[in-house]
Amino acid sequence: MLRVRFLLVCGMCLGLVAGCGGGDDDKKKKEPEKKKKAAHGGHTAEHGGTLVELEYHKAHVEVVLLSEEGILQVFVSGAHAYQAMEIEMERMEAEVKVGGETLAMKLDGVEAKGGRASLFEGKNEKLKGASEVEVKIKVVDTPVGKWEGVEAKAGASAG
Fold first, then answer.
1. What are the two backbone dihedrals, phi and then psi, of residue 32, each rounded to the nearest 5 degrees?
2. pLDDT for position 47
3. CATH number at 36-155
4. Where residue 131 falls among pLDDT bands split at 50, 70, 90?
5. Where does the chain hold its CATH 2.60.40 domain(s)?
6. Cβ–Cβ under 8 Å, residues 35 and 53
């Protein structure tokens, strides 16, 4: 009888230990999906702009405002944000809010080879002297996924 009680108590303890794990792990696994618009810790913007994580450990874009020249740049990079990712796009389209006005901009691939580029750039006189812009990129189509409506705020960077 004592042996049966001992086995029951051991079984219940084992069940509690096994059943109590995983709750927080499940939340951590789902958390990156919620942060598609913000880069995760440990990755830095290589060009001094605003880093946006498109999807956890898949791709990033970095939005850079070169205010003195009136230039907006978008760099496309891979999972760890430091390695350029060439994509099959010759041009990106973006809506850029600056000083209460929304500009429709076309960002052309820089040094595009065979229709592939990792840097996209556009110039507009209304960006000159701006301290911050809000950018909404219509489509970013990469080998690892396609994202629409990618948003970022970018402050002026030194050229």
1. -60, -30
2. 87
3. 2.60.40
4. very high
5. 36-155
6. yes
